[in-house]
Amino acid sequence: MPIYALGDREPTIHPDAYVHPDATLIGAVTIGAHTSVWPRAVLRGDYGSITVGERTSVQDGTVLHCTQFHPTVIGSDCVLGHNTHVEGATVGDRCLIASGSVVLNGAVIESGAVVGAGAVVSFNGHVPARRMALGVPARVREGHEVPEDMVSGIVRLYVENAKVYRQQLRRLD
Ligand SMILES: CC(C)(COP(=O)(O)OP(=O)(O)OC[C@H]1O[C@@H](n2cnc3c(N)ncnc32)[C@H](O)[C@@H]1OP(=O)(O)O)[C@@H](O)C(=O)NCCC(=O)NCCS
Question: Hey, which of 134, 142, 159 would you mutate to test ligand 1's pocket, going by the most ligand atoms within 8 Å of its Cβ?
Fold first, then answer.
């Protein structure tokens, strides 16, 4: 599993987290309990720090980076879908950052919010709690509140899936 220290910056991975062997973690990266990090995800904590809470899935191909001025902070019980890119932003708890979306420096996604597939949340963008942002650039959908339990099923699924991978994944080549 490619997990690298950069000088004295070293990843901290909770013993109950699952990091797939093809994910890459570098530097100041903290991963919480029951969080899972899937193949080809890259979490590069070089200029600043990256923190991911508990039970969050960081799915395949996701890139998490940070800047000297903007750490990346991802809450608990979140879903970061395939190929997402979060750079120097803050994401609250129970958020869906859907496949292929981009969340840029200084952006704040409040708890329970959704960033739709393929959306781009601009620099310093803001998605209020339990609202949904769609499109490029992302716009908050008017008159719509995200259901409270929108991502809870996916969160549970990934926590269980990580246990299966931990026990059953075997490399065959
Ligand atoms: C954002 C999302 C959750 C919205 O789902 P939904 O609430 O069921 O929304 P609907 O499909 O009913 O669409 C509602 C409106 O939003 C639009 N819309 C939905 N998703 C959109 C997207 N990603 N980008 C732009 N517009 C979108 C629809 O066209 C529709 O517009 P209209 O009202 O003008 O007809 C869903 O489209 C999505 O992006 N899911 C991603 C799932 C994912 O990435 N999972 C990670 C892997 S587990």
Answer: 134
